[in-house]
């Protein structure tokens, strides 16, 4: 695992949250219990480039780390960082009518392929073959659905469910539904 | 159940992505529905 990510997720680092980040989660209905269970925390500016492996553009004033919980325990090496620009219009979710040149809402380590986003509080339901799965686009919506008791698993974008270069489902699906098992 | 963003109703690329996802899940044996979560519309 990336040493900076490991440090940020360790008990040594206080898992604090900047006011803007807290407001963003509250707007999406994410509770503090969920936030702590999912390991969400603010990233010190001095760690931006060490965490991501590249320098972020200057309009970004802060990053909120969304680590990806590993169903087997701990965290995956994959994570995303929600970008904040100090400009409420930019911090709003992008819409289809906006130009493609809009700055990114999330960043992730370069070269890392998509992974499924698991919510710890509903892992047992997700793994239960008798329970219907809710595959939800976006981490925050996934957490919100999980808080309501749905067996929710997230994907980070409408094309983040398949292996790059093919339409094969991510290997992560094999963890929750083996081939031939009921969905 | 696939729950895409609300722009699935207005963005053809998102609509196609959701349909491709559903097709891949069905090929894996799933019974799939696409549904918007409340607040995503």
What's the tally of helices of chain B? 1
Strand fraction of chain A: 15-25%
Tell me the Rg of chain B in angstroms.
Answer: 10 Å
Task: Provide the structure class of chain A.
Answer: alpha+beta
Poorly predicted sequence stretches spanning 5 or more consecutive residues of chain A: none
Helix content of chain A: 25-40%
Q: Give the strand line-up of the largest sheet of chain A.
A: 1-2-3-4
Give a concise summary.
The complex is a heterodimer of chains A (about 180) and B (about 40). With about 180 residues, chain A is α+β, with helices and mostly antiparallel strands.
3D architecture notes:
The complex is a heterodimer of chains A (183) and B (41). By secondary structure, chain A is an alpha+beta fold. Helix content of chain A is 27%, strand content 18%. In chain A, the strands form two sheets. Chain A has a four-stranded antiparallel β-sheet. In chain A, a hairpin with a 5-residue loop joins strand 2 and strand 3. The longest helix of chain A is centred in the N-terminal third of the chain and has 9 residues, at 19-27. The radius of gyration of chain A is 16 Å and the shape is globular. The model of chain A has no long low-confidence stretch (mean pLDDT 89). Chain B is mostly helical and 41 residues long. Chain B contains one helix and one strand; from the N terminus they run βα. Chain B has one helix spanning 12-27, and one strand spanning 2-3. The radius of gyration of chain B is 10 Å and the shape is flat. The model of chain B has no long low-confidence stretch (mean pLDDT 88). Chains A and B meet through strand 6 and helix 7 of A and strand 1 and helix 1 of B.
């Amino acid at each position: 695992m990336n040493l900076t990510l490991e440090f940020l997720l360790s008990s040594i680092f206080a898992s604090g949250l900047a006011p803007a980040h807290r407001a963003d989660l509250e707007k999406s209905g994410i509770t503090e219990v969920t936030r702590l269970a999912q390991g969400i925390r603010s990233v010190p500016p001095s760690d931006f480039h060490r965490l991501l492996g590249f320098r972020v553009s200057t309009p970004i004033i802060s990053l909120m780390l969304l680590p990806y919980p590993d169903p087997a325990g701990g965290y995956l090496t994959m994570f995303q960082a929600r970008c904040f620009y100090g400009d409420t219009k930019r911090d709003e979710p992008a819409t289809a009518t906006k130009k493609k040149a809009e700055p990114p809402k999330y960043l992730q380590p370069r070269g890392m392929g998509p992974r499924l986003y698991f919510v710890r509080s509903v892992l047992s339901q997700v793994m239960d073959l008798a329970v219907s799965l809710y595959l939800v686009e976006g981490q925050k919506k996934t957490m919100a659905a999980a808080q309501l008791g749905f067996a929710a698993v997230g994907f980070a974008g409408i094309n983040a469910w398949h292996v790059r270069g093919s339409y094969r489902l991510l290997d992560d699906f094999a963890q929750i539904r083996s081939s031939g098992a009921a969905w | 159940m696939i729950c895409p963003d609300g722009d699935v109703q207005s963005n053809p690329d998102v609509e196609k992505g959701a349909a491709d996802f559903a097709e891949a899940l069905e090929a894996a044996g799933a019974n799939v529905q696409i549904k918007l979560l409340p607040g995503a519309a």
